[in-house]
Amino acid sequence: MIRVVLADDQVLLRAGLRALLDAEDDIEVVGEAGDGAEAVTLVEALAPDVVLMDIRMPGTDGLEATRLIAADDAMAATRVVILTTFDLDEYVFEAVRIGASGFLVKDAEPTELLRGVRAVAGGDALLSPGVTRRLIGEFASRSRDTSAPASRELSRLTEREREIVGLVGEGLSNDEIAARLVVSPATAKTHVSRAMVKLHARDRAQLVVLAYESGLVRPGWTRD
Question: Which stretch of 10-14, 18-22, 41-45, 198-202 has the lowest confidence by average pLDDT?
Answer without folding.
Answer: 198-202
